[in-house]
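Researcher: Please translate sequence to structure tokens.
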Amino acid sequence: MTTSPDPQPIAERQLCGLVNGLAQRITDHVRVRAATLGLTAAQATALREMTGPMTMRELAERMTCEPSNTTFVVDKLEKQGLVERHPHPTDRRAKHLVLTAEGAELRTRLLELLVVDSPLSGLTDQEKRVLHQLLEQAVTLP
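Model: Translation complete:
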């Protein structure tokens, strides 16, 4: 005689599958849009996350990757003339990453492209706010 599976683990597994599926769709979307601008997905993610001057560590946290990986990405962006390293205003050991004028212009174009046919574009603004609140709550739980 088989017992029916516990609904809690099934719901948890299904929810994890949906979150992973959405993450993959977003990654694929970023990759395709980035390629139209001659960028890798990692470079596009770095540009997307550069909302102002920040340290390499801050950018790595926003990109959810290791600082060494971020260094590699920033090196490429710097060679393309999109990012510059400046002295940090309060920490002489750190550098501030700053978008160049060309980098800021490319970031604007990237952000415009990322909203076109986004995996989230079928959601209303209210649904996006609710999803944001739920995801934020889930990632900050102890």
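Researcher: Any highlights?
Model: The longest strand covers residues 83-87.
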